[in-house]
Amino acid sequence: MAPIASTAAALCFLLLLAATVSNAALANSSSNSSSHSNAAAASCPDQPVNLAALSSSSSAPPTTCRVLIVGGGAAGMFSAYTLRELGSGVCVVERKTVWGGKLQSLSAGNSTDTDSPDNAGIGTAGLWIHGEQTDVRCLANQLNVTLEESHDDTLINARGQWTRGGAEGLLTTQNGSYTAPAFNLTDMDGDTDDLQDRMWEFLLGMKATNPLTGATPSPHPAKSCASYRSMGHYINTTLGLEAYAFLIADMPEPGNLQFPVDVCAWIQSEIDERTIRSKITTQFIAHGGWHGIIERAGAVAAAAGVRFFLDSPIACISSIAGNATAASALHVTAADGTTSNRNSSYQFVATGPGGVSGRVFIAEHLIFASGPLDVRKLGGNVGRRLAAAPEAASIRPVEVAVYDAFYPQRFWEDYMVHRYGNMPVRTDANCLVFSEFPGHTYFRVKNATRPVYATDLRCIAFWRQLHAASGMPGIRNYVQSSLQGLFPLQEVPAPYLDTFVVHADGWHLMDYGASQRNVSIASIYSWAASPLGDHANLCLAGEAYYGISYGWTAGAWRTAAHCIKQRFAGVLSGAALAAVEYVSSGCNGRARFPNEIVLPRNASMPGLNPATGKVLPTVE
Predict the structure, then answer these.
(1) Where is average pLDDT lowest: 6-10, 252-256, 458-462, 472-476?
(2) How many secondary structure helices (H) and strands (E) does the chain include?
(3) Are 105 and 123 in contact (CB under 8 A)?
(4) Are strands 395-406 and 448-454 parallel, antiparallel or unpaired?
(5) Phi and psi at residue 423, to the nearest 5°
(6) Tell me: the pLDDT tens digits for 194-212?
(7) DSSP letter string over 323-363?
(8) In whole angstroms, what is the distance from residue 573 CA to residue 521 CA?
(9) Where are the domains positioned within the chain?
(10) ∠145-150-156 over CA atoms, to 5°?
(11) Three-state DSSP class for residue 493
(12) Which residues form the FAD-dependent oxidoreductase 2 FAD-binding domain (predicted)?
């Protein structure tokens, strides 16, 4: 693939994206797409739309597109990038006034070069690309986005005690080392492997013996997965409250155990994820965050002529009545280089909250690149069909609170083991829940951190209430006080730049009851590629339809690629389709890419216990 073209279109797009996050607090985030509200959907036509009537009912001529992409987040931008050979025939519409959806970045410098450490853009949602996601690494390489390799050096604080590497150090086992144990659990199955791993393997049905009792129940508790409303309910019932407290203390996303979810699907997803995690030996941080990748993809698409429309909510998606007759009656020259009165292939009408009286897009193909929260709000005869699908009702969005901050000094460095590693801190002492202190060369210049990443239900409510009552000063003061409690031997300064956001749909899980509706992870993935059947030019793309939460934004690429391979085989050239396959293959299975920086691992740091100032051993 060619590097980013140095054109006016690309430059304009980059300038728009550079202004997407201010230095003030971010407002509460919803979803990426252009969808609006249920009230707006009520004004949508319930029947197919006759194009001939649009000229008299709409305030302006409709915008015509060969492909309309609804949603300017990761999936929408990846779709536009992949379809760029269609040029101005591709339209991308976004409800918000910024691109990127929830994948924004907070930058500390004045540089517009996301690759510069003076920029140090840290993401306000997902941060990492996992090593096994070679397709995304291949895509980042094509887009000239620099990736820095990273290894985690995890600290866990639970019940007032610290351990490094894993929660096993907080257990009292038959050879326990704590006189005042953080957790009172004893393994009884005679196995010497990590007790935490054995507990999960039993819960997932991968092992028959309960490691805490030595019993081998029949039938296995996992066989009754459909009877539990959440993973927490399942764990409490199967292993007990103390085991649940221990397992959740080690989870960066504890909300995953608290929400009502389809436990059968969760178990299957976790088994799949364990297989993926076993292949991960490293992870990468993108310079400029995920937003930097989206920015580059959008710039390449813009340089190819793809049209972008901000502040363009879509509330209604309808089919077209009598394509050939209606199209010939609509004498409007299309902006995509075709003449609409010769085009009998239009299938979809997409409008805003005002229905056909407002802005109207008509398209041959449509990619709805946003999540189920937006699907459920859609009106129009096509939108209502999507909204009523059991698959759309079977996906649960997960809320996450995120606080990013830049500090005048690196008060956390004495507690790291590797200078260039990433130090995650998981704690039950406050609602920080999961903090990250990156040591990458890109972040070190500006001391970029993520002190808060919380999905815990109680903490989500706390952060919302605190922000509503005290705004950013209240958020900032609470975080500073909480960090001081975790690092009592240091003076924790106030940040010089910070931002806070609550994402309504940070990622997605299978909702409770999905299995009873015969909906599975695999069926959602297939449904998204052809939700109206094989003969309709419509598909959905986004992380929500990938099903495995460990995919994160990689799921946006994979569903977009799946959609395009399924629905655009007769539209794109063979070379363009081969390019999609090339990225999906990880650039033909490459292990390393030219844009990746491998940081040294021999740069040792003190690795102290934050509470005592003494060396804290790593749990193997």
Answers:
(1) 6-10
(2) 21, 20
(3) yes
(4) antiparallel
(5) -105, 95
(6) 889 999 999 999 999 999 9
(7) HHHHHHH---B-TTSSBGGG-----EEEE-TTGGGS-EEEE
(8) 31
(9) 166-178+187-277
(10) 135
(11) coil
(12) 67-104
Among the listed residues 506, 445, 449, 442, the one whose alpha carbon sits nearest the alpha carbon of residue 480: 449
CA 325 to chain centre: 43
Give me the helices (H) in 401-553, please: 441-444, 457-486, 521-529
Burial (0-12, 13-18, 19+ Cβ within 10 Å), 278: exposed
What integer is the mean pLDDT of 289-313? Answer: 95
Quick one: which of 293, 275, 254, 276 has its CA closest to 130? 276
- 599: DSSP letter: P
pLDDT at site 3: 39
Q: What is the mean pLDDT of the chain?
A: 86
CB-CB contact of 290 with 507 (8 Å): no
Q: How far apart are CA 298 and CA 311, in angstroms?
A: 16
The residue count of the chain comes to 620
pLDDT > 50? residue 247: yes
Determine the distance from the C-alpha atom of residue 385 to the mean position of all C-alpha atoms in its chain, rounded to a whole number.
Answer: 26
Q: Is the dihedral of CA 267, 269, 272, 278 positive or negative?
A: negative
pLDDT at res. 151: 86
- Residue type for position 250: D
Q: Which tokens go with 531?
A: 């939700």
What is the distance between the alpha carbons of residues 263 and 231, in angstroms, rounded to a whole number?
A: 6
Buried b / exposed e over 493-508, threshold 16 CB at 10 Å, is eebebbbbbbbebbbb
Q: Give ∠ CA 34-38-42 in degrees, rounded to 5.
A: 105
pLDDT at 615 over 70: yes
Q: Which tokens go with 334?
A: 């299309």
Mean pLDDT of 179-207: 84
